[in-house]
């Protein structure tokens, strides 16, 4: 059966479009070599390797920001906030930790790595920038490492309210959504972390009197979800 003229016209236009569209590589701009920037107080800082996966040079812009509820007197400074990285090359970004007194608990910040490509020839515009926003964990000197800090969380109920507290010295990362058992009442923590000493109170539309457990999904320091954990709800 002969194809209608409209079909061939559309096919011709699409073929011209594909010929004219430039080839797009699978590069992702500036790519850190880890999902977490770990800073040890005993080393007064740390570092992260960042690779320019594009085939053109770009400026690597590095910025450290605080998360909600963190102590802003603890400073983490990149030694080179802006540096040129050639296409395909790797740059080590070093960070210096500055504190007013020795740390007692872990602290959490965020680091942003942003690649700024050169201007497009014949234009005042620059290419698309891609940001990588990673967590920063600052670990105190003398504090033992702990792989399961979520076991230290305490959960309390009163009527239709639930209070979760992190009494330990560790930053706890977890999925935002969790449920109380056996009612399977759903809650949203509104964040994916609890800082040391932090507590959050949430409300439910129904009473939690019959519930005695909480089921949630912990997250490792490198952002990997681990097996569900069930804690007592008192």
Can you walk me through this structure?
The protein is mostly beta strands. The chain folds into two domains: 27-139, Immunoglobulin-like; 149-232, Immunoglobulins (Immunoglobulin-like). The chain is 7% helix and 43% strand. It contains one helix and 19 strands. The chain has one helix at 5-20; strands at 30-32, 37-40, 45-52, 58-66, 75-78, 82-85, 90-98, 107-116, 130-139, 154-158, 161-165, 172-174, 177-181, 185-188, 193-194, 199-203, 213-216, 218-219, 229-232. The chain has a five-stranded mixed sheet, with no helix packed on it. It has a four-stranded antiparallel sheet with strand order 1-3-7-5, with no helix packed on it. Strand 10 (154-158) and strand 11 form a beta hairpin. The protein is elongated and about 65 Å long. The termini are far apart. Belongs to the periplasmic pilus chaperone family. Its main location: periplasm. Residues 164-226 form the Pili assembly chaperone C-terminal domain. It is found in: Periplasm. It comes from Citrobacter freundii.
Per the CATH scheme, the topology name of the largest domain is Immunoglobulin-like
Coarse structural class: mainly beta
Number of strands: 19
CATH A-level architecture of the largest domain: Sandwich
Number of separate helices: 1
Domain tally: 2
Read across the widest sheet, the strand sequence of neighbours is: 2-9-8-4-6
Rg result: 24 Å
Helix content range: under 10%
Alpha carbon gap, first and last residue: 74 Å
Query: CATH homologous superfamily of the largest domain, by name?
Result: Immunoglobulins
- On the 0-100 scale, what is the average pLDDT? 87
Main location: periplasm
Pfam families: PapD_C, PapD_N
Protein name: Fimbria/pilus chaperone family protein
InterPro entries: Ig-like_fold, PapD-like_sf, Periplasmic_pilus_chap, Pili_assmbl_chap_C_dom_sf, Pili_assmbl_chaperone_bac, Pili_assmbl_chaperone_C, Pili_assmbl_chaperone_N
